[in-house]
């Protein structure tokens, strides 16, 4: 069989932007009797990759604008491309992480909250952590320093979002690791849109992807099964001066809504989704991603067949890898062609080399 390889790329911003610095290492596996050879170790920096089955070569920094075409040709030859995307956002900093906690600055406030994926030891001393304006307990409740509000606003480019510290949710209303996706939506569509195009945002939560798409010229259908999340998203639209933008706000079960749109023969230029691992619809409908995601993706394909340009999915809290999403996307868009990118969304820790993994994503684009 032909060898296959996985290329791991760490980007300081979204892959679409010229000048991004991409750390590349090619790992080449040769199929042999009994399966692929084991990879024992990989070295970084100037060290050689000398594990069994690995093609000898250095890590290198590549100018994305210069090398994009050549790299794309390589990836077409039976290779899988895995990215790690870390966003750049003035209103957010990951100060430290470890011991299943993370220390963050969101806008003007420093907060200390749970982070199950931070297994390592914190870099900063306890005195730095003690400066937190708010600390989230193991049961999700917040302890606020005197004068710290439970609500404040932050900006992302032209968008504004409300941050809330509530005792009913472990989330604060924004997912900073998704900022490369927001930026990608704003940049890509702003350059491509001529006339009205429509986008479907499923499991839209507090609406940052919706607002990013609207600011770029899309008419957006925002679907979520949670009334509080829907009200929060509409509040963010008003704060962003997009309260009168062309947004359809749909309080509904995502799967049921998509099925109705298929029956209506609706079509979309793009679909964004952020499905939970488990959830309930407004009428008690049960969502389990491992049982229903594949069917939902196939239904979404029907909405994109005519003039669809892309589908972007982000997944949290599922026991799957980016390779699993790659396989799912290949099944979904078999026969339609296009390009599939997969990877992780992560947060780069301030002043160090640690990167906190947060979620996985996959994106299909029609070529």
What does it look like?
The protein is an alpha/beta fold. The chain has 3 domains: 4-86, no CATH class; 92-148, Golgi alpha-mannosidase II (Immunoglobulin-like, Sandwich); 176-337, Vaccinia Virus protein VP39 (Rossmann fold, 3-Layer(aba) Sandwich). The protein is 24% helix and 34% strand. The chain is built from 8 helices and 22 strands. It has helices at 64-75, 126-129, 179-192, 208-215, 227-239, 254-263, 289-304, 322-332; strands spanning 4-11, 21-29, 31-32, 35-36, 60-63, 79-86, 92-98, 101-106, 109-114, 134-136, 142-144, 151-156, 159-164, 197-202, 218-224, 247-251, 270-273, 278-280, 286-288, 310-315, 339-348, 355-365. The strands form 5 sheets. It has an 11-stranded mixed sheet, sandwiched between helices. Helix 3 (179-192) packs parallel to helix 4 (208-215) and helix 7 (289-304) packs across helix 8. The longest helix has 16 residues, at 289-304. The chain is globular. The two termini are 28 Å apart. Residues 1-7 and 12-78 have low confidence and may be disordered.
Q: What is the arithmetic mean of pLDDT?
A: 80
Structural class: alpha/beta
Percent of residues in helices comes to 10-25%
State the CATH class of the largest domain: Alpha Beta
CA radius of gyration is 21 Å
Oligomerization: single chain
Domains, number: 3
Q: What is the CATH superfamily of the largest domain?
A: Vaccinia Virus protein VP39
CATH architecture of the largest domain: 3-Layer(aba) Sandwich
Number of strands: 22
User: Which blocks of ≥5 consecutive residues have pLDDT under 50?
Assistant: 1-7, 12-78
- Strand composition percent: 25-35%
Number of helices: 8
């Amino acid at each position: 069989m032909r060898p296959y390889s996985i290329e791991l790329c760490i980007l300081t911003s979204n892959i679409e932007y010229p000048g991004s610095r991409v750390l590349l290492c090619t790992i080449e596996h040769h199929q042999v009797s009994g399966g692929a050879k084991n990879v024992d170790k990989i070295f970084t920096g100037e060290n050689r990759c000398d594990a069994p089955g690995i093609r000898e070569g250095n890590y290198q920094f590549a100018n994305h604008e210069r090398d994009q075409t050549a790299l794309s040709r390589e990836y077409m030859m039976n290779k899988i491309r895995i990215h790690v995307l870390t966003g750049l956002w003035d209103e957010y900093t990951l100060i430290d992480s470890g011991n299943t906690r993370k220390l963050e600055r969101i806008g003007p406030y420093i907060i200390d909250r749970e982070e199950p994926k931070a297994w390592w030891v914190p870099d900063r001393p306890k005195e730095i952590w003690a400066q937190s304006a708010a600390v989230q307990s193991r049961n999700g409740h917040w302890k606020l320093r005197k004068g710290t509000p439970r609500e404040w606003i932050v900006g992302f480019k032209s968008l504004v979002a409300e941050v809330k510290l509530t005792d009913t949710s472990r989330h604060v209303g924004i997912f900073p690791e998704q900022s490369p996706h927001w930026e990608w939506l704003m940049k890509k569509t702003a350059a491509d849109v001529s006339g009205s195009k429509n986008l479907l945002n499923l499991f839209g939560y507090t609406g940052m992807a919706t607002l990013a798409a609207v600011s770029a010229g899309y008419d957006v259908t925002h679907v979520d099964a949670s009334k509080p999340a829907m009200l929060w998203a509409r509040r963010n639209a008003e704060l962003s001066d997009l309260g009168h933008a062309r947004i359809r706000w749909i309080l509904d079960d995502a799967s049921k809504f998509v099925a109705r749109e298929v029956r209506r023969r609706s079509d979309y230029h793009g679909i964004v989704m952020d499905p939970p691992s488990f959830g309930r619809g407004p009428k008690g409908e049960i969502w389990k991603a491992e049982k229903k995601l594949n069917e939902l993706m196939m239904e979404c394909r029907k909405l994109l067949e005519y003039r669809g340009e892309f589908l972007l999915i982000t997944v949290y809290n599922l026991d799957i890898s980016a390779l699993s999403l790659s396989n799912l996307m290949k099944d979904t868009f078999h026969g339609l062609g296009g390009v599939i990118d997969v990877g992780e969304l992560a947060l780069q820790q301030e002043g160090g080399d640690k990167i906190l993994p947060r979620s996985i994503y996959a994106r299909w684009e029609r070529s």
